[in-house]
Structures are given as C-alpha cells and as structure tokens.
Amino acid sequence: MPELFHRKLERSTIGFVIAIIAAASVGGIVEIAPLFTIDETVEEAPDMRVYTPLELAGRNIYVREGCYACHSQMIRTLRDEVERYGPYSLAVESQYDRPMLWGSKRTGPDLARIGGKYSDFWHVAHLNNPRDVVPESNMPAYRWLGRTALKTEDLPLHLAAQKALGVPYTDEMVENAARDAYGQATPDTDFAAGVSERYGDATEVSAFDGVATQLTEMDALVAYLQVLGRLTDAAYRNTAATEQPADPAN
Amino acid sequence: MLANLTSSERQNALVLAVAVALAGAVMAIAGRADVLGIHGLIVALFGGVVAWLVMASFYAPEPAEDRAASYYDDPIKVGIVLAMAWAVFGMFMGVWVAAQLAWPNLAFDAAWSTFGRLRPTHTTGVIFGFGGNALIATSFHVVQRTSRARLAGQVSPWFVLLGFNLFCVLAVSGYLLGVTQSKEYAEAEWYADIWLVIVWVTYFILYVATIARRKEPHIYVANWYFMAFILVVAILHIVNNLALPVSWGLAKSYTIWPGVQDAMVQWWYGHNAVAFFLTAGFLGMLYYYLPVRAQRPIFSYRLSILSFWGITFFYMWAGSHHLHYTALPHWVQTLGMTFSVMLLVPSWASAGNALLTLNGAWHRVRDDATLRFMMAAAVFYGLSTFEGSFMAIRPVNSLSHYTDWTVGHVHAGALGWVALITFGSLYTLVPSLWKRERMYSAALVELHFWLAIAGTVIYVFAMWNSGIIQGLMWRTYTEEGALAYSFVDSLVAMYPYYIARAFGGLLFLLGALVGCYNIWMTVRAAPAAATRGADAPVVPAAVPGE
Predict the structure, then answer these.
(1) d(C-alpha B110, C-alpha A141), whole Å
(2) What are the sequence ranges of the domains in chain A?
C-alpha cells in the first residue's frame, strides 16, 4: 500500500527530510564518484605542461571578465566542429583547469585551439577594438587591459594554491612566479631564460602586447590565448585529427 | 517592523548586526590590498545600517498580545518588496545585456559594463534576487498557513531574509568589480559562499522547526517542495563551491574540482539549480496559491506524490545532458539523457495536476488575470519541460547546444513559468497580507499579464529562430564538402533576432514595473473594513486551573 506508507511518511518531519536527502543523493553519487576512480576518464599525456605564471594570470583575467559566457573551450566530437576548430577536445587537456572553462554558449567562436592561429599583434588589435579587425563583431572592446599593469606580487600564492590542489608546480616555479611572469613578456632578458628553463623551450616568450618594457594585463591575456590547445599534443595523436598542431615557434 | 520583537530579541538582533559589521571590518582590513577590502566595507555598512535600524526603535513599546495567536507576516512583507526591487534590477540588466549583443558599444568602453561582467548580474539578479526573495517570502507564508502555526523564530526570519540579500549584494557587486569564479550560476566567491551556507542552514532549521509545530497531522504538498528546495540547494551549493582561497586577504579562490570532474559537478549543480531553485520552490508556490485562488482543491493527491518523488529523484541525474559530445565519458552522457527523458513524466504530472485543478474554475481563469498568470505558468511549465527533455536527446543537442535555442528554452522556463507563477502568487498574497479587499487595480494586473505574455512569446520565438539558424549554419556543407559558412556569417544572421529579443525583454520589464506600481498603490490603500475570516494560527486553549 504505497499510499498508506506515504500518508505515514508525511506525518514525520525528520522522516521526510531523510527521504528527500536519500532520493536526491543517488544521481550525483553514481555520476560523479566514478569519474575519480575510472582511469579512462582522463587520458595519459606525459608531454602535458602546466600554465606559466603569466598564462595563469591571463587565465584569471579571462575568468574575471566572464569570457566563458560567449566562448566555449570544448570542441565536440562532431565532424563540422573538428573541421572548423580542430581535433575534438580531450579530458586531459583541461586536467589543470580550475575552473574548467568549457562554456555553454557560442556567441563567439570556440577558443579551445585558438593558440597559434593568429599573431600576438592580431590579438592585441582585436582586444582593443574587435570591430577594427572583424567589422561584424559584437564583442566588447577591452582597451583598458593594455593600460592596466599586471599584479604579479600575488602570483607565488596563486601557484602555491594550485600546487596544494595537485597541479605539479615545483617549489622553484612557485618561488620564481613573479619573475617568470615578467620574463615571459620580456624576451632577451635573464628573466626570460628562467621561463624556458622551468617550463620548457617550447614556451612562447614574447612581448605580447608589443611593449617589452612593462607588463600589462594585455600581455597576460594574450599569452593565455596563445597557449590554448598547445599544452599537449595528445589530441593530435590517435584521434580524428586532420591537421597538425600549431607550430609553437610561429 | 520591530514592534513584534521583545526587548531581549531586539538585543539579539543588535548583537547579530554588530557582529556582521565587525566581520565586515575584519574583511576590509585583511583585504585592504584587494577588492576583498571593498566587499568588507559593503558588509560593514550593511551590518551598520541594520544595527542603526534596530537602535532607532529599540525602546519602542513591546508587543502586548500573545504573539503565538497571530502569524508572523512582517518579514514576508519586506521580502515581497525586495523581490520586486530585484526583479526590476535583474530584468533591466537583462535588457541591457541583450541590447549589447545587438549594439556592442552600449558597454561605453568601461570595464564594469562589459557583457561578461553584466551578464551574471542579470542571472543572479533575477534567479537569486527576484526568485530567491519571492521563495523566502512565500515559503514563510505558506508554511505558517498550511501548518496553522506561527514561524518558529522571531529574529531568525529576518536573519534569513536580510542575510540572503547581503549575499546577493556581494555577488552582484563582485561581478561588476571583477570578482567571479566563472562557474555558471555559482559565480560568487568563497566568502560570499560561506556566508550563504550560514544563512541557508538557519533557513532550513527555521522551516523544519515551524513544520514541527504544525497543528495539522500531515505536511502539506507545498511544504514538501519547499523542503526539497531548501535541502537540495544546500547540498548543491556546498559541493559545487568547495574551493581553496589563494589567501585570506584575497577574493580569488581555486575550485577543488579539476577539468572534467569540475564540468560534471558544475552541471550537476547548474541543472539542479534549475530543478530545485527554479522548479521545486515554485511548485511549492503553485500547490498553495493556485488552489487558493481557484477555490478548488488540488486535482489528485496521488499525482502530487508521483511528481514530487519523480522530480526529487530523476533531476539529480540529468545534469550531464549539458555535456553531450564533450570530453565527459559517454556513459555519463547517456545516463543524463535517459533520466532527462524520464523526467517528462513527473514534470507533466505536475503541470497536468495544476491544469486539472482548474476544472470547474475556468470562468475564473477568463475573468481573473491573477489566476490566468498561474494557468499560463503551468502551461509554460509543461511546454518548457517537454522542450528540455527533447533537447537533452543527444542528436537534438548536437544542433541546439552552444546556440541561442538554449537561451530561449531557459527563458521559456524563467519568464513563462517562474516569473508568471511568482506574479500570480504575489497578486494573491499582497491583498491578503496587507488586509485589503483586492489589488489596487484589476486593469493593471490585466495589462501586466498581456505585457508579460507578449514579451515572453517574442523573446522565445526570436531565440528559437536564431538558435536553429545558427546551429544549422554551423553544420551546413557545400557540395564540394567544405563548410558553407564562416562563424562570422552565422553571427551576422543573428542581429535581427537579437534586436527582437531585447524588445521582448523590454516588454517583460515594463510589465514588472506596472506590477510594482500596482503593489505599491495596494499597500498605500486604506485597509479593508472587515477582516476576512479567521487568519490566525491555532492556539491550544488554556486549561482552567493550570
């Protein structure tokens, strides 16, 4: 007699509360917990590198400005998406992403593999006023990024927090975070050499915003955009890839 | 407002307000080098203003009568006013961001007014500001009437209501300042999230304690939904917002969930924010105010049970349909799709139960715009839950995902269901709370109804068109086998619909303004001569000799 049972249940406040918790817990537990235990959930990518301090700072600007509201970073396993944006995204490519920025809406195009597709100069022009390079665009202009100095003194704290959560930053990377952020945007300095040493020779060192003397939020955001899709080559191996990864030297 | 508090309760309220102000001062000092400091000042100011309000009538006469013999309606009245204020703010922000998509220079070249920062002020403003305040206010009303008991606390309802609004203020001001986790519908940072947990646990305890005082043997259906809303939102909020602050002096934190797991947790949260904030809570409203207004009992008790447990169980599985064809494992996508389709059963059971309740009262639906608000809400609820199950099917989702179709679907639910049931409920509740015969103007309720319907229909049709066109353009191939349209081609095709959408939203905002005026004039009107029936809790009769 299910109805009789329910008549009893709805006489008990605590019983009802417990029943709600029980009914509502199952779905989440079944769908979330195995994602941590099933090994195939995240692919292996031994060549995967972490974000440099400058790229991480740029990512935090992307987060702060809410770019995810219009740009996805998740190429789906559909033919037209692979042909338009590149090989479909793998879970491993966002394994260090907190939060993930897969997005839910494309008012603008997907950015999962935007890195290396346009020059730094193009990105700076586009962020300053998107309609200068894409007349039909409805993206906001971000002129102030190039006028705002990047805060670097907190970067060691940021890397330390990421490290505490399991991102494989070394103590040396944490210690040198502020210097490395400066070095990555000032080629041909001693600081720049440290970046290549700690994050690999393939790391792009460039005066991203075109001004090598000062470090701005524009430098950081462009550095981040230029590394999107290039932390690992995993997506180009054993997948439906029709193209080669963007050349880091370009 | 303090007239109903005893002097010791006023002291407690003062201590709480001062404690909040002090916490704000600590935040302001710890975060002086960061935007956290600005938020500290806002918290301190908020606590200070509340403390000042308490001080101002600290020595006013104390309540004379036995309070247990009357319902506690003061927090509900303030909650209604706050809900309408947030409605105007949130909907205005919505119209502004919608217009920015058509005319991008409406950001005026400032940082705070770009689309990415304004968009969450719209979503938070309408979902949490408008929806949340309306839910808190109506739940306080429904739980007292259906339990025939006064709220189980005197200060705690104020703590819940004002504390929740402090959270909303921190969230919205944070986005403008660039403080966000970029987790959709959970953008507020760690300190605001912790504060909301404190507020929400108080809400839960207050609600359950009030139900425990009930003079009715059974817990009424509306309270099942309000309880599910409070409980499950707490679970979702805590799990999704687990994060490690970069330092105690910085607003920034990093979520403990990485990449693919973060995506699953985020959409488990995101979809169930729809389920338990925007559905369960508002079904609680529907199950009380619709039968009251129609003067008909709920059609079927069994359907109520079926739909309640169906919604509570099935919804929690459905979030992964936001991640079809992504790097989320296929088995989770399939589970999400399956449960989303099954969800149609309890959803339509609810919608059908509501509409069948109106049998015998259809002449009232014709004559009374307030009841028509609720009828239209039930229809939109049925339509958008059907659409949701449909869009969760993987091949359909391949077309609809990432497009405006999703935005249209959300607004069919948010405007057509959530906002309409809220306005219908408020137009029922306001005259009864303020002891008036009826709303100030029935004609203005009628005008609001048609503005809301026209706005919703224009909005939803514009987004269906733009979404489906966009989805088709992205996947169209030429005869040579190349992609036919560039991304910019698809964007150019969107502009007419973006203008139409902004216009639809504007009509809806105008309707809300008409509603504000009507509510304001009702409150200002003279109270009805005779009190209507006995609207008081059951008090155990005093036994002689005790």
Answers:
(1) 9
(2) 5-36, 53-236
Give B5-27 pLDDT, tens digit per residue.
999 999 999 999 999 999 999 99
Q: Judge if ipTM > 0.85.
A: yes
Distances from the Cα of B229 to the Cα of A123, B36, B76, B136, B340, angstroms: 45, 30, 18, 11, 19
Give the whole-angstrom CA distance, residue B224 versus residue A16: 8
For chain B, which residues score pLDDT lower than 70?
Answer: 529-534, 540-546
CA–chain centroid gap for B131, Å, is 2
Candidates A182, A196, A188; CA nearest to A149 is A182
Q: In this complex, which of A35, A77, A107 lies closest to B101 when CB atoms are compared?
A: A107
Residue A88 has what DSSP assignment?
P
CB contact under 8 A, B491 and A164: no
Chosen for mutation from A64, A97, A126, A157 (greatest number of chain B CBs closer than 10 Å) is A64
A211: Cβ contacts below 8 Å, ≥ 6 apart: none
Is the dihedral angle over the CA atoms B166, B167, B172, B174 positive or is it negative?
Answer: positive
- Give the residue carrying structure tokens 């005082």: B213
% of chain A residues with pLDDT over 90: 86
Whole-angstrom distance, CA of residue A46 vs CA of residue A234:
9
Q: Which residues pair with B253 in a beta bridge?
A: B245
Chain-chain contact of A95 with B262 (C-beta, under 8 angstroms): no
Tell the CATH topology of A53-236: Cytochrome Bc1 Complex; Chain D, domain 2 (1.10.760)
Question: Does A97 lie at the interface with B, CB-CB under 8 angstroms?
Answer: yes
Would the CB atoms of B208 and A63 count as touching at under 8 Å? no
Distance CA A81, CA A92 (A): 19
Q: How near does any CA of chain A get to the CA of B372, in Å?
A: 31
